[in-house]
Design brief:
The structure holds two protein chains of two kinds. By secondary structure, chain A is an alpha/beta fold. Chain A contains seven helices and five strands; from the N terminus they run αβαβαααβαβαβ. Chain B has helices spanning about 20-25, 45-55; strands spanning about 5-10, 35-40, 60-65, 70-75. Classes of the chains: A alpha/beta, B alpha+beta.
Chain lengths: ~180, ~80
């Protein structure tokens, strides 16, 4: 009898969960931008979410995917357009620019210096922390193809996955917080 | 005798957002349920963030003391 009650309760709970999309303590964020300042904000929110006891998933798409490139990795076998994109887009998070006040590199260098002085974690430290905390990174397969990036040229990151829009929507639907940066 | 019988002090001085909440969320597991940890922070944002974190994570802020250049927050582990 006790078992029956438990199963019924579980089924009921499942039904209630289905009726309440967005009820999970979870953050789903689209990282569309490849700007340094926006990436910093995205990573601070994601690590903060885990601190709040939430799950956090970041979907990297379009310009955001360039931030995941590993500057140490060179891959061959690309066609002309892919080579051009690879050459024009920042090779990794260390090469990102500010969305505002970049000023030919001066503004970005000043901000990085200011962050160091004020003890604000750098983007490198934020990525490291995100990995430790279990922030998931999902990468848009279509953007990778469009930019001509190969999987091998992205950074090593635990829980990194490649996916499409359906994966994002499935995550977003059950998340209580959804953001687009 | 430590105030609120705090079993340890967590020194987060000089660390800005998001470090204070990240650190407390990692450290709260190191004390037992019912015990109190005393947090030292210099980040004014913590005044709002710690209650928000406590509410969300189901823990309790026992007391917050603002002193000259230092904020002391007593956090009780509830679960």
């Amino acid at each position: 009898m006790a078992v029956d009650v438990a199963t019924e309760l579980a089924e009921l709970k499942k039904k209630v969960d289905e009726m309440q999309p967005g009820a999970l303590p979870k953050l789903s964020m689209v990282v569309f931008s490849g700007d340094l300042d926006k990436l910093i904000a995205a990573l601070i929110i994601a690590t903060g979410a885990v601190a709040m006891g939430m799950q956090a998933v970041l979907f990297f798409t379009f310009w955001g995917t360039a931030a995941l490139r590993d500057p140490k990795v060179n891959v061959g076998g690309k066609d002309f357009m892919s080579k051009m994109f690879g050459w024009m887009l920042p090779k990794g998070r260390g090469k990102l620019k500010l969305s505002n006040m970049h000023m030919a590199g001066m503004g970005t260098a000043m901000l990085k210096d200011l962050m160091r002085k004020k003890n604000v974690p750098s983007l490198d430290q934020l990525f490291e922390m995100a990995a430790q905390l279990g922030v998931q990174i999902k990468v848009c397969e279509m953007s990778m193809d469009l930019m001509g990036f190969k999987r091998e040229e992205l950074i090593d990151y635990p829980n990194k996955e490649f996916c499409g829009v359906a994966t994002f929507l499935a995550d977003a639907k059950e998340s209580s917080v959804q953001l687009f940066i | 005798m430590a105030e609120h019988d705090a079993v340890k002090v967590l020194d987060l001085k000089g660390l800005p957002c998001p470090m204070p909440v990240v650190k407390i969320s990692q450290e709260i597991g190191s004390i037992d349920v019912g015990q109190v940890v005393e947090v030292h922070t210099t980040d004014p944002g913590s005044l709002a963030d710690f209650p928000a974190w406590a509410k969300s994570s189901g823990n309790e802020i026992v007391e917050t003391k603002q002193e000259e250049g230092l904020i002391r927050i007593f956090v009780k582990r509830v679960k």
